């Protein structure tokens, strides 16, 4: 269907034009909210309306000088990085194991490992709230890190698993037959090959934790409030331009993550192309 | 494993080699499982265990048993046809005195009040007026005098039904059902029957959002799958950027756009289309718009991958066989996108069912979905039994749909649409 230039009949041309028009409208629908919120953060006024009375950085200044917002940014980073690292270890090990494991229970185990993504956040949050409260893990960094790791690990299993699917197990055998210890073989042969999968898994894991709010709502004490959590209460009370500044910062993080992921994908495609 | 292979090759007979190979394979499998094990144990602690605990709370019923132990024992053999005997009254009077002394009466009062409105008052008034344990043979009279409710069968069946240790009470309540005085399952009283409405609303919002996503997502996925890779990759940014943008940012953005002095209303006013600002948010419209925006990428990505897999040769073949474009589209192209439509719709529907944040922020009181009530009963009113029962129903629906989804996407590469 890539030959839309050779559309012959008028009805085909109309259909194609309609597709383009509708798609353009949908693209506008998808992107406008994200673009519309950004300039407001640079407004010199305190109302969230256009036209802007003038430009200023006062809301970013407000953000940076507010202990509340800076603390939430710090918390998001701590919890995000820690749960990314933990989910990398658990997820990579599991993906390596699942790639070799042959059993009729495998689909079941895989479904279980991936289920934290599908189960509604509120259910996980309520379960964790009941479960973690008696053992003192609510209102603690550890509790949130563990919970976010559970949500993030499926993405690591998926991405690393996908890389392993195209991975030639003979390479590991060759390494072993050449005298490499299993650890050596992993470090010097397997690891470099699955690195792109690991990296995108890490990005997904970090993004998951960085954006998560339902579990934080249930489990975080005042000390552990993350950036999305602060935004949630901010939006509830009264949206100030400082929230739009926070939104721009969050979006910037997303764009960096997305760009890195896209770069990894391109690099991977190039590598595949050159080896073929 | 390689060692086993090499030594196996050295062996002179074939049988030991086979056996060794099998043993090597078994070791390999054990090692593979050992690699998965840490994650399984971890998820048991941080995911499966907590959810199992929540499901347990949906049927757990021990409050009354703990606070009124003698009454529970005395009622065990009560047939429920007439009022209980003097023994039960005496046991209750004893239990109430003991509970008041230890300060636990409120626990039982709270649980019994869920089943029968006003039970809290019955218990507290009785506790207040019960100075000492009644003389033998007069407990029935004394309690009946303090509060006439003790002369009614319903009061007693309520205690009996709450005796635990397990109960179907919360699960029934989550479906607007209850047990009547004779133990039969009947519809709950209208003032308590709100959850079927909530489930219906949750279902309606989810299905509307799914339909909107399909209608808006289909042409986009088609365009992306049809354009040459260079251009479609460029346009893909319009799908992936919102996908990666924080849910909170997007919800916040819709509030900025749709509020009464927001961008949309201002523009419409400026264009002279409206005089008064339209109410676009804190209602069903706002919820549907914001949720569609959040979930649309989850529809486009699976649709895109299913369309990408359709060879253009089919459409050309249909055309060369004389099919008009519309016929070719409906009979050749559309059927091949059905797995993508199914997967995308199910994914969006599953995610929409459990939504909490967006309706909580942009919906009105009449737009709150089931998640809102689960959260409300957990953190605000601490009715954990009901919260868990509602959670169990939502979880069941999700699991059933996820099983269908799993069947649909088997062998398909749609994991790209799995970010929550």
Blueprint of the fold:
The complex is a heterodimer of chains A (276) and B (420).
Chain A: H1 10-40, H2 58-64, H3 67-100, H4 106-118, H5 121-132, H6 141-165, H7 169-177, H8 182-211, H9 214-219, H10 227-237, H11 241-275
Helix pairs in contact in A: 1-11, 2-11, 3-6, 3-8, 3-10, 4-6, 6-8, 7-8, 8-11, 10-11
Chain B: H1 2-10, H2 14-59, H3 63-67, H4 69-75, H5 86-102, H6 105-115, H7 119-129, H8 139-146, H9 153-161, H10 169-174, E1 177-179, E2 185-187, H11 195-226, H12 229-244, H13 247-258, H14 263-270, H15 284-308, H16 312-320, H17 325-353, H18 357-362, H19 370-380, H20 384-409
Antiparallel strand pairs in B: 1-2
Helix pairs in contact in B: 1-2, 2-20, 4-5, 6-7, 11-12, 11-15, 11-17, 12-15, 13-15, 15-17, 16-17, 17-20, 19-20
Question: What features would you describe in this structure?
Answer:
The complex is a heterodimer of chains A (276) and B (420). Chain A is mostly helical. Helices cover 77% and strands 0% of the residues of chain A. In chain A, 43% of the residues are buried. The relative contact order of chain B is 0.08. Chain B has a two-stranded antiparallel ribbon with strand order 1-2. Chain B has 420 residues and is mainly alpha-helical. The longest helix of chain B is centred in the N-terminal third of the chain and has 46 residues, at 14-59. At the A-B interface, helix 1, helix 3, helix 4, helix 5 and helix 6 of A face helix 2, helix 11, helix 12, helix 13 and helix 15 of B.
